Structures are given as C-alpha cells and as structure tokens.
Amino acid sequence: MAKQPPKSTKKPAPKKQAPKPRATTKKPTTKKAPAKPAQAKKAGAKPKLLSGGNPQIAKADGDAPVQAFIDAMPGWKRDVGRQLDAIIGRTLPGVRRAVRWNSPFYGTEANGWFLSYHCITRYIKVAFFRGTELDPMPPVASKNEGTRYFHIHEGEAIDEKLFASWVRQGAKLPGWDGFKC
After folding, report:
1. Which residue, 4, 60, 91, 112, could crosslink 167 as a Cys pair with Cβ 3.0–4.6 Å?
2. Contacts for 9 with CB less than 8 Å, ≥ 6 apart
3. How far apart are CA 47 and CA 36, in angstroms?
4. Is the entire prediction scored with pTM above 0.85?
5. How far is it, in rounded angstroms, from Cα 154 to Cα 75?
6. 129-147 pLDDT, tens per residue?
7. Which residues pair with 60 in a beta bridge?
8. What region, left, alpha or beta, does residue 94 occupy, with left being phi > 0 and alpha being psi -120 to 50 degrees?
9. How many CB atoms lie within 10 A of CB 38?
C-alpha cells in the first residue's frame, strides 16, 4: 500500500476582492458613447404616421409644411385634405398656414388661428375654435368651450358652400391670438 501524503491543515486562500476606491479631489470623468451618425432621410420618405393615421410633421409656419402634412395623409384622407385646403385658400386668399401639434392650422394675421384638422382612424376631425358662434353651428360639440367639430368620413361629400361659409365667418372672429403658439 502506498503512503498518501498527509492532509494539509492550511485553509484555502480567500478570493481576492476588488481594491477599495481611493478618495480623490478630482471629479470622476465619464466617457460619452460615440455619437451615432445621423441617419439621412431617404428622398421622398413619408413622415411617420401617429395613432389614427395622423402624420407626424414638425412645427413650422407656411404653406410647405401644410402641404407636407396633406401629402402624408393616408389613403382617402389625402384627397379630403387637398379639398379642404383648396376651399380654404379660395375662400380666404392670403390665409396663414402652419403646422402645430401635428395638425395643419389656418388663420389670419389680424385674428389668429380659427381652424385646424386632424386625422382620426375613421374620419377627419375639422375643428372651428369659435364654432359655437358660427351660423349654422358645426354639428359636433367639444369639451372645449366655444369649439365645434365637423367630421368627414370616407365617401362623404363636403358641402363646399357651407364649409366656405364657416371659413369666412371663423376668419372674422377672434381666434387663438398670434402665430407663435
């Protein structure tokens, strides 16, 4: 029988722990992750559609952002958007246009914004900010005092004469003041 070495009475060495940080007077520097290169937008790329199919368009003044909004409206809503913009433009030459809160706004320099519209899943919601003062009033009530809505569903014809009348009346009323909203 072969002799076995005697068993060691030594305890195993403890696992090494990370050294404790030293107190310094310098502020620790944090390394920033390298900046990702900006992704170039593809030419002709459509803006992102938000819930209900409403285009996401950056806040801007002028006809160009409103036309970009209309061009990005999905399906049948695009044709309705073009029709609304055309009626408003014919009724009020020189109307002010802008995009705010992902919606086109229309107004006059003297009275401010009087109308906006927004894509909802099954219709377009046209808002007249002083709609309770229009004759006749647009048909849909709002939680906002004074505001009335006109909903346009797929396949519905717009009564251009009535809509133009609302535009003329709305433009004469005090709307949201100024163009800095």
Report:
1. 91
2. none
3. 21
4. no
5. 10
6. 999 999 999 999 999 999 9
7. 99
8. left
9. 6
Residue type, 52: G
Instruction: Give φ, ψ of 112 to 5 degrees.
Output: 90, -165
What's the token pair of residue 94? 């020189």
Q: Is the per-residue pLDDT at 154 higher than 80?
A: yes
Residue 120: which of 50, 181, 57, 66 has the closest Cα?
50
Name the residue type at position 4.
Q
Range list of H helices, the chain:
63-72, 76-91, 160-172
What's the rounded mean pLDDT across residues 4-20? 61
- List the one residue out of 161, 148, 153 whose CA is nearest residue 90: 161
**CA-to-CA separations, 125 to 3, 65, 180, in angstroms, rounded:** 96, 19, 23
pLDDT mean across residues, the chain: 84
| H or E segment to which residue 53 belongs | none
For 42-54, the pLDDT digits (tens) are 445 567 888 778 8
For residue 42, what pLDDT is reported? 46
